[in-house]
Amino acid sequence: MNIPIDFAWLEATMLAAVRITAFIVIAPPFSYGAIPMRIKAMLAIALSLVMGGAVAPGYENLATAPFLGALTVQVLTGALLGFLVLVCFSALQAAGNLIDVFGGFQLAQAFDPHSLVNGAQFTRLFHLSALALLFSSGGYQVILAGLARSFEAVPVDGIFEVSGPAELLVDGVSQMVLASVQIAGPLALVLFLADVGLGLITRVAPALNAFAMGFPVKILLTLMLAGMVFIALPGLVDALTSEALRMLRGVQS
Prior knowledge:
By secondary structure, the protein is mainly α. It has one domain. 76% of the residues lie in helices and 2% in strands. The protein contains eight helices and two strands. A two-stranded antiparallel ribbon has the order 1-2. Strand 1 and strand 2 form a beta hairpin. The longest helix has 42 residues. The two termini are 42 Å apart. The relative contact order is 0.14.
């Protein structure tokens, strides 16, 4: 029995699987620790089989040393793409951290081993809500579409330009910080003014012990204003998904 094997297709599919696996391990929402690793591996293999027909045309078999080099490049490419998506969605986590700091919730800080997030209530709440919205709204499909387009920009036997991803990383970090301040900035300002008001009351009437009332007042204000931010969360996730797709398209060979 003679079973023909297209080694060019097999090598191209293997290289695609390496890039997709590195991407899934790092990029949200697939990187969430509660998803078993075997599920992530099965998803990566299934996606690579789907992409095999698109990446194989024009691919030529490589020798051992060039093939190992191509494997290394694919790991770096997938990790870079996943890190760009991670940086983009870290804005919500940073916004939740700002709310925890100004709202006085930072004392209840805890480490979540699934998401690898160390933060208080709103940090973890915003992180988990963003992951849930990505799955429920189909945003993960947009991210996978951006990953599929990366094979057109950077073929499995090619290499990306170093200057482009470096600019994207700098731009992504700056945009993440700006987005987190825009999301949580108004709430943080109100809580800061509440502290200033309580301080003035203490100066005018020290017997009132305004700071003893400050804790329930700040908690009430935080819950009310954070609820308004939470209502706007679907739109924020949609905007961050579009930004992540733009950054994925920015990686060129």
